[in-house]
Specification:
The chain is α+β, with helices and mostly antiparallel strands. It has a domain of about 250 residues: FAD/NAD(P)-binding domain (3-Layer(bba) Sandwich), CATH 3.50.50. It is about 25% helix and about 15% strand. The protein is built from 13 helices and 22 strands. Strands 1, 2, 5, 6, 7, 8 and 22 form a seven-stranded mixed beta sheet that branches. The chain has a three-stranded antiparallel beta sheet with strand order 10-14-11, with no helix packed on it. The longest helix has 24 residues. The radius of gyration is 23 Å and the shape is globular. The two termini are about 35 Å apart. The N terminus is likely disordered.
Length: about 575
């Protein structure tokens, strides 16, 4: 594998632990240190972003005989799949085919090795999964895994296919996209490195390349009336899952002095009105880190006390405990070797609700601030539960047995290197996926893959009800009516905006449709399909909007993609 290892102050990284804000500012001030050594790299397909979709797209392009390069702000590849989300949100596994299924087969191969079971015997794991066992021996796949195992699988794919990867390279979002007419000719990084290509794929969670290329996109929730949906827009009064203040009839005052508005609001509660039911807004679902925890004494690092820790920040959580809530460990999902993929659960958990609204459009500096704020909040949440005297003794004693896994995320203080960017920009392309397609209320044209997971949005705000209590809003969980198809036209810009760009992550979809599409296996599926279309467009000398669907479909099916409902494999 070829890595970009040039030393430059202008390359930022989401390695959130090591650098100060002063260093960050100086990086942008002194951003031309190696401009004189900048090079131009030419490839058939240029992929921006090292997510799971980016890696899979690169492998597919290479297998189709195209020269390809991954240019990524990331240092660690694989996105959330390698960043802590080991408890894979799969839905119906029968519709996961192609290179995505090959990835999960490689994970299965890893755990066939006895040396992979360092902290736990394989027979002790329990093989707990979602619908099917985590280790599906019949299908030779494994769906639940440790972060380092996933990252190694991605790295192996790239190494075996000799795909160059230039890491820690950040798109110049203001002037880095060069176009001739409606075609991108090159993209330039803050380092000065330039990458020219025939086709480009934006595989980032943020959609930075599509935005810089002048492609239409949306941020926030559309109103229900925009696409005649039911589950988009403001959802006050809707209480799905158990991530709200009604799970055990919890009624909590939002004020520092209970029931005294003059005393001011508790931390982590907004005084803004929630908005009219069904109305569109600027809000996006909450982010967090999918932390890898362990209760194995030899591999456990006690929860660190974050900088500036103030227990008063978690007064709301203390009141939740006082009200009788006892579900702290509801999403400590077990992965191999006595570890977890720990996710948000309950009315105040790891999701940092309402603190990410400006992230999609923010500068790199501001994004890094936002992510540091998320890290600080979530570390404090763990530390509070493990140490504060207001936490119920039985909950605290149990939490003290947990800690960060010492052998995961070793370069970032055992904290995940990838935040869970559940939603940022979403392209408005040739076709917009909505809940009508996801719920199979109407047919989807030009299927290039399938999804099946629940329409799933995390909360977007914590507000004060008319009765004067705290409540969360935006958490939606609506089951699909079986697997659904995803349109090729949702991966490409509108005709005339950009003729050689494909977008397999920030796909053209409404907020609530994206709530289902946004699962990591689906991103891999769409990454493969996007690369296939890019290769066909190159071979035929056409725009991505002119790729013949029957040609595309034939290649996808040949390569194992599942494009229509199939019985479980």
């Amino acid at each position: 594998m070829t890595d970009s290892r040039r030393d430059t102050n202008c390359r930022l990284t989401f390695q959130f632990v090591a650098f100060s804000a002063a260093i960050l500012v100086s990086a942008f001030v002194d951003g031309t240190s190696d401009a004189a050594q900048a090079e131009t790299f030419e490839h058939d397909v240029v992929i921006y972003g090292g997510t799971s979709a980016g890696v899979i797209a690169a492998v597919q392009a290479k297998r189709m005989g195209k020269s390809v390069i991954i240019v990524a702000p990331d240092k660690h590849l694989g996105g959330l799949t390698a960043g802590g989300l080991g408890w894979t949100d799969t839905g119906n596994k029968a519709v996961i085919g192609g290179l995505a299924r090959e990835f999960y087969h490689r994970v299965w191969q890893h755990y066939q090795n006895p040396e992979a079971w360092k902290w736990q015997k394989r027979k002790e794991y329990g093989n707990r999964g979602q619908g099917t066992p985590a280790i599906d021996g019949n299908q030779r796949t494994m769906w639940i895994f440790e972060p380092h195992a996933a990252e190694q699988a991605f790295e192996d794919l790239l190494r075996e296919h000799e795909i160059p990867v230039h890491r820690d390279e950040w798109l110049d979002r203001e002037k880095g996209v060069r176009k001739e007419g409606t075609r991108i000719t090159s993209i330039t990084m803050l380092s000065g490195q330039r990458y020219s290509g025939k086709m480009f794929i934006d595989a980032t969670y943020e959609g930075d390349l599509l935005a810089a290329a002048g492609v239409d996109y949306h941020v926030g929730r559309e109103s229900n009336s925009t696409y005649s949906e039911n589950w988009n827009g403001v959802q006050t009064g809707v209480l799905h899952h158990r991530h709200h203040f009604g799970a055990v009839d919890i009624r909590i005052s939002p004020y520092l002095v209970p029931d005294d508005p003059a005393s001011g609001l508790l931390p982590e509660v907004s005084g803004d009105p929630p908005g009219e039911y069904g109305a569109g807004d600027h809000r996006i679902q909450a982010y967090c880190f999918r932390t890898c925890l362990t209760d194995h004494p030899e591999n456990r690092v006690p929860f660190p006390k974050p900088d500036g820790y103030d227990p008063a920040r978690y007064e709301l959580l203390a009141r939740i405990y006082d009200a009788g809530w006892r579900e702290t460990f509801g999403k400590f999902d077990p992965i191999p070797n006595r570890k977890t993929d720990t996710n948000n659960h309950g009315p105040m958990s790891s999701d940092y609700i309402g603190k990410n609204y400006d992230y999609p459009e923010a500068s790199y500096e501001r994004r890094r601030e936002i992510i540091r704020e998320h890290e600080n909040y979530q570390k404090g949440w763990y530390f509070f539960i493990a140490n504060d005297p207001r936490v119920p003794p039985e909950t605290q004693a149990k939490m003290q047995k947990w800690g960060l896994a010492k052998d995961e995320f070793t370069e970032t203080g055992n904290w995940p290197h990838q935040p869970y960017i559940r939603e940022a920009r979403r392209m408005v392309g040739q076709f917009v996926m909505t809940e009508h397609e996801v719920l199979n209320k109407r047919p989807t044209p030009k299927s290039v893959g399938m999804g099946s997971y629940t329409l799933d949005s995390h909360n977007v705000q914590r507000y004060i009800t008319p009765e004067g209590y705290v409540q969360n809003e935006g958490d939606i969980g609506v089951k699909t009516r079986g697997p659904y198809q995803i349109s090729y036209d949702s991966l490409i810009p509108k005709r005339g905006q950009c003729d050689n760009l494909l977008v397999p992550v920030c796909v053209s979809s409404s907020h609530i449709a994206f709530g289902s599409i946004r699962m990591e296996p689906v991103f891999m599926i769409l990454g493969q399909s996007a690369a296939t279309a890019a290769a066909i467009a190159i071979e035929d000398g056409i725009n991505v909007q002119d790729v013949q669907y029957e040609t595309l479909r034939r290649v996808l099916v040949q390569d194992g993609q599942v494009l229509e409902s199939a019985s479980a494999r």
